[in-house]
């Protein structure tokens, strides 16, 4: 057996940490001298210590690790814990990627402001009427992927699908969690409406100010701000009672299912 100081040197884990693991019942010494209080460990305990360190490296807390060390822990329970951790880490990655995307957009906007010119080409055009099926709700923009999933599940039951997404931004009166959002998929023919989903025709707009950019549907972006500044500087005004539209197509090269080539459309008229 090894004294705690010797076991610390072999394992490269501090004596303080080993004592802490003892207190938490994560790694108990094989023997504790009742007269001196010295802790003694065996070489076999290196395997358990290494497992603790490996689980810590994967992001598990010591409280989460304790039940994972039991010899009788079912393999399905371990799989479940690892899946939960996997989902937790994936959620963090998604949020950080969205934050990176917003930072990149903000940098692009700052550079454009410094040069006093837009960073994207802005085009005026007419938009034809469009038959769609839509789902409208007051919620956070972060729920847009979930709204599309519910809409797509309904379309799937009818044997229909579409790669094009349309987001209509009706307004934000109270908070960012109560934005009046409508998600829609274009249709080629009439289909039944559902309890939550409405089949309707988006109206023709004679003059739309449009800007194409790369975006994520669950992230805020600066493209609309850039377009609004152009509208103001160019002698136009936003037409009342017409929601801002965003037409999204998958960006195949990026390989991210939530990243799109998007065209922002704002109905305008001469000021």
Q: In CATH's first tier, which class of the largest domain applies?
A: Alpha Beta
What's the CATH H-level superfamily name of the largest domain? Regulatory factor, effector binding domain
What structural class do you assign from the helix and strand content? alpha+beta
Average the pLDDT over all residues and give the rounded result: 86
Q: Please outline the major beta sheet.
A: 9 strands, antiparallel
Number of strands: 12
**Into which percent range does the helicity of residues fall?**
25-40%
Gross morphology: elongated
Annotation field: number of helices: 7
CATH domain topology of the largest domain: Multidrug-efflux Transporter 1 Regulator Bmrr, Chain A
Q: Uncertain spans, ≥5 residues at pLDDT below 50?
A: none
Tell me which CATH architecture of the largest domain applies here. Alpha-Beta Barrel
Report the span from N to C terminus.
87 Å
Radius of gyration: 29 Å
Q: How many distinct folded domains?
A: 2
Pattern of helices and strands = EHHEEHHHEEHEEEEHEEE
Strand percent estimate:
25-35%
